[in-house]
Amino acid sequence: MIKVGIVGGTGYTGVELLRLLSRHQEVTIQAVTSRKEAGMKVSEMFPSLRGFVDVAFSTPEDADLKSCDVVFFATPHGVAMAQAPELLAAGVKVIDLAADFRLKDPAEFQKWYAMEHTCPELLAEAVYGLAEVNREAIASARLIGMAGCYPTSVQLGLLPVLEGGRQLVETDTLIADCKSGVSGAGRKAEVGTLFAEAGDNFKAYGVKGHRHSPEINQGLSAIHGAPVSLTFVPHLTPLIRGIHSTIYARIKPEGRDTDFQKLFEERFAGEAFVDVMPAGSTPETRSVRGSNMVRIAVHRPGNGDLLIILVVEDNLVKGASGQAVQVMNLMFGLPERQGLDVVPLLP
Amino acid sequence: MIKVGIVGGTGYTGVELLRLLSRHQEVTIQAVTSRKEAGMKVSEMFPSLRGFVDVAFSTPEDADLKSCDVVFFATPHGVAMAQAPELLAAGVKVIDLAADFRLKDPAEFQKWYAMEHTCPELLAEAVYGLAEVNREAIASARLIGMAGCYPTSVQLGLLPVLEGGRQLVETDTLIADCKSGVSGAGRKAEVGTLFAEAGDNFKAYGVKGHRHSPEINQGLSAIHGAPVSLTFVPHLTPLIRGIHSTIYARIKPEGRDTDFQKLFEERFAGEAFVDVMPAGSTPETRSVRGSNMVRIAVHRPGNGDLLIILVVEDNLVKGASGQAVQVMNLMFGLPERQGLDVVPLLP
Amino acid sequence: MIKVGIVGGTGYTGVELLRLLSRHQEVTIQAVTSRKEAGMKVSEMFPSLRGFVDVAFSTPEDADLKSCDVVFFATPHGVAMAQAPELLAAGVKVIDLAADFRLKDPAEFQKWYAMEHTCPELLAEAVYGLAEVNREAIASARLIGMAGCYPTSVQLGLLPVLEGGRQLVETDTLIADCKSGVSGAGRKAEVGTLFAEAGDNFKAYGVKGHRHSPEINQGLSAIHGAPVSLTFVPHLTPLIRGIHSTIYARIKPEGRDTDFQKLFEERFAGEAFVDVMPAGSTPETRSVRGSNMVRIAVHRPGNGDLLIILVVEDNLVKGASGQAVQVMNLMFGLPERQGLDVVPLLP
Amino acid sequence: MIKVGIVGGTGYTGVELLRLLSRHQEVTIQAVTSRKEAGMKVSEMFPSLRGFVDVAFSTPEDADLKSCDVVFFATPHGVAMAQAPELLAAGVKVIDLAADFRLKDPAEFQKWYAMEHTCPELLAEAVYGLAEVNREAIASARLIGMAGCYPTSVQLGLLPVLEGGRQLVETDTLIADCKSGVSGAGRKAEVGTLFAEAGDNFKAYGVKGHRHSPEINQGLSAIHGAPVSLTFVPHLTPLIRGIHSTIYARIKPEGRDTDFQKLFEERFAGEAFVDVMPAGSTPETRSVRGSNMVRIAVHRPGNGDLLIILVVEDNLVKGASGQAVQVMNLMFGLPERQGLDVVPLLP
């Protein structure tokens, strides 16, 4: 049994990790930390876990995280980088669901997250937690910076057309018009995400620049093997879970004869968690609610030179905790679907 | 023109006062205070007011509230009682939308609001702002404690059967099962009212005791002229605006021959803001969205001894700011509908 | 492996059966019928099932339901009673999720469902599918009339105080104020349940009389062993899944010394799917979203003579398809939790 | 007083016309037709109108529409073209909110709406009801084909950069990624727009081609004076009202020195219903809820060559009924804001 610790179990990615890991047959949840709620049963805060998770929150000090095999950080940005070096030194694997180990350039991190990186020496070692791209590196990694929710959907959506330097679409006019449910903002007291603010309302945000932009461009450039520049416009939509990314790519002359449907189907044929929908589909977010699946549809209206890629994911599962469990499975040599074989909840 | 000041313009009752008063033809909005946002245009915080409200937030000091004819307090509990004495002394009328002047007994206030009342000497003078009950007293009042959102719906629903000591229903087994939209909790950063918490979710709260219980019982007892005891169970429902009260009353033997439909229709025949629906109706909250109207339906299943009264209101209008404007109209001798002649927004 | 047939797989209870049964390790889904969609893959209509359910809809004729071990009817009222006799004769067990076999009196059925009962001779044999009440009878039954969604919550909520003729509460003044999510109305094209009608809206319905009233009173009377009369008022609330029942019971003098919290805890101690919450709790519907669990809290404000029982369930799971799987497990001697060990989805 | 007839008063655009026109001081509502509901009071179907609209539905025959000054068609496509010729011949002005008179080419109409146009001879005369573009033509028109909901937002968003042949942006790579609330689908019984289908869900639709595409391109080409080709991708989002269009335009070399914020502000300076937000804004749909206002924000990330234009409108007001009243005002020489001076409802 893998001994798991979770730092920061009071947020949405924390409770989602607990939902998934509590049914994972190779895992024991050894500790869930929350300084503020120490002593309270986790299931008292989240009654949905009654009968499934019996552990109480503990302080980081009492948690003895060093005796875990792996520690997930479901925390605000900045927490993982403060604790990761010590855990790694003790032989514990670290999976950070926040942004501490996503960006390779500490200056970029500082620019977007307004804090200095405290262990830049680990950035080179840290593996980017996007299994479909980095499966082998993940399997042998000690430290993972999990892909963000938006970046997961955008990178998977563009993977087949950019991978390996393919010259199918223009790489400097890419647009990702993304829509996220409100849980993406986390479980923290803020006016902007109140029900009476975000309900029956739709808006863009971060148009000037969003933290996920450098992550997306870094990831796409790595996939492509050359610089890629994508314009990312996130929107807040009144759903609890779900991201829908509508990606626009201009097809290059050398890409015009490509059968994009086939390209996507072949690329993802062996992937457990990427489902290429039949031609003409328009996937809906609820078709992946509660599951680690991403569904993708590819459109080329009028057989013209614009490729439209639609991607849906559950931002808390494939966009966060589910993908983290997938990555953990890889790190411990388990079947990738273990603990993630959940049917989406519809309606 | 009536010079109006609003203390606390950043919450939902504040913006709702501004929506209504900005179209009120006898009113000038002289000042809207917010210490925190002083200097910012009100319409910058609430773009819905662009073109309708040109004023900026000011500090209480700069606002010169004493030069107003009337000041509304759309503030947390405790603010109005700190400022009312001085304003009243300056000849300014005061309308408090919070609870400072609702309960007649300062001990009760202290018990439920966890603060000492700082001007108990004003409690006797303060008139309870429920126009359909206290119209005359309101017209000559200097100081109003506006009825709460739930209490407005419950008192109006029971008014015809309790008024003037009528012996139609049992007064010690009354139940009000009330459901409120999330805006009732105000525009303040709290986890419990986040979209991802309150959305697609339904729960009771305050079953042990809710602040509106003493207010309801005080009001009903005053209406009845004898003690009335009602069990009040509030619920949070995923709508932005709206309260639906389902009231259960046991009909006394002496009430069994009453034509309750007729009783209700006659009682409210002259009321501008109470609409008794045809027999058999089930009013919906959206039928009053954005309006000061209350709609009531009366049911007596199987002609038995249980009376079921359904009441819907918009908690921010008739349950708060609209009713406050109605009360202001009464205080200044204006037509009661002035500024409130708004068609509900459906869908 | 149990060979399962599902008649009527295009509605919400159908897709929910498929979600649960597709992960049930003792079950093979042999046929899903829909005359209208025959030939279409089930997962084409419900992409959430892609990768989990590979079967296509078939016509009833092609389905060879007689070779199944058990057939679920997830159909409109009236379908099961037309097909049950033949299936039973062929040795197939029948579980009807509609109302055909709920009411024992065919005249009552005809009154509430506006159709004549075509096999009244089966009504006596049919077992009411509420496992916590009828476990043994279910285990040996051939034909089950599943409990309705509202009736499940109300009966479980009152079970401990009424069972076995207990004289704890008045049985003629019971009230159940129930609130249901919109999926309870089914997946059929109707104006009243459109998003733009039912969204941001709350209303009562069926106040004059609802089909679940006779079912509730029949069930409670059977539980109590004497006539029970409950007033049932359903409400439509803007959530997708979930029922919240607020039940009011007057405590009799002989019940006043009862420790109701303890009574409930002891009654349900061995039940896999009934969770009595700690004293003072207010359970939320999302705490059971997607799961077969019912959560109950018991309140007695001011230690007075009113008992308030709060019950939450997922109307599509414990209120329909999950309970049907639970019943199937009992009928086939399987562990009651088999295939139902799902963590609720929160948020 | 202008005598108004409304054909088809049972849908959302119908009730919205009634909401607005019932407060319009120069209007008398003479008839509201619905063959199916003839005889029923309009306010019985829409209780929100109780006290504001006293008229009953009548059959088209009884309605005597020829005695009206103007008739609005709030009907499915195809109804207006059947009745318009006779009304026009009788001297009645006609405003069609459906698509019968939007497209200039009857072949295009037939292609997209799957019916033959029955009065193509009127298409040349019909004026496109987008006031900000066609104000003068509208003022003297007899027959108006109102702009669609999506096309209104997209055309207003691109008006300043395309008008009069301006060479500021590429006209063959334009993209409009649009998101609509569910009321846009109308008040008709359909599975896809049920609360339990469209709630907590997000999806694209019509990616292959949507009826509003030819309308948008026709309108933009007319504005530009040269062919414009825009890719239009609509999405369904779980809000009741509201459209958010995110428009992407590539800036041409000759447009790079343009101050787009200023361009937009100047273009719309005199417009009553177009509000150019301050630089950097991200307008939200609720900021125009219930009002005829459109709010626009202009972004140019990194001062690069991509222009992002954000447009919000209420699809039932500026996208339909409000704009129709605006057009009526123009046709009758009334102030454009008459009856439309409504503060948006927030929250």
Automatic annotation (TrEMBL), chains A, B, C, D:
Lineage, opening ranks: Bacteria, Pseudomonadati, Pseudomonadota, Betaproteobacteria, Neisseriales
Described purpose of this protein according to its UniProt entry: Catalyzes the NADPH-dependent reduction of N-acetyl-5-glutamyl phosphate to yield N-acetyl-L-glutamate 5-semialdehyde.
Major location (coarse): cytoplasm
Location of this chain's protein in the cell: Cytoplasm
A Pfam family reported for this protein in Swiss-Prot or TrEMBL: Semialdhyde_dh
InterPro entries associated with the record: AGPR, AGPR_AS, AGPR_dimerisation_dom, AGPR_type-1, NAD(P)-bd_dom_sf, Semialdehyde_DH_NAD-bd
NCBIfam families in alphabetical order: argC
Root EC class: oxidoreductase
Reaction(s) the record says it catalyses: N-acetyl-L-glutamate 5-semialdehyde + phosphate + NADP(+) = N-acetyl-L-glutamyl 5-phosphate + NADPH + H(+)
Keywords for this protein: Amino-acid biosynthesis, Arginine biosynthesis, Cytoplasm, NADP, Oxidoreductase
Coiled coil, from the record: none
Domain Semialdehyde dehydrogenase NAD-binding, chain residue ranges per copy: 3-141
This protein's pathway: Amino-acid biosynthesis; L-arginine biosynthesis; N(2)-acetyl-L-ornithine from L-glutamate: step 3/4
EC number(s) per entry: 1.2.1.38
Residues annotated as the enzyme's active site: C149
Protein name: N-acetyl-gamma-glutamyl-phosphate reductase
Gene name in the database record: argC
Residues spanning the signal sequence: none
CDD domains: AGPR_1_C (cd23934), AGPR_1_N (cd17895)
Family: Belongs to the NAGSA dehydrogenase family. Type 1 subfamily.
